Amino acid sequence: MALIRCPYLDAHVELSETRELHIAESHPDLLPEHREPEVVRRSTRFAGAWLFSRWYDAIRDGKHVVVVIVSEPPPADRHWVITAYLARRLSGGEVTWKRG
Known about the structure:
Layout lengths: L1 E5 L4 E5 L1 H10 L12 E4 L6 E8 L6 E10 L5 E10 L6 E5 L2
Antiparallel strand pairs: 1-2, 3-4, 3-7, 4-5, 5-6
């Protein structure tokens, strides 16, 4: 398992081998280099989920890379990557942070 430092959450985020394999098989062009978000949104569909995204012109004629992180509040205080996907446009979720 990899631990990735997330300044936004001020915590380490777990990326298990199982999740990394799932992402690599479903979207091989996402890992490992696409990890710096420009927008963070709270999911409206799933409590405790964050949507980290960034636009890339070079991926399939322009797409957002979206990484979904689930956060478990204290006392567990655990954060882990559940999935990642490509999106033509972003929809839903409350924007909580944007890169300046």
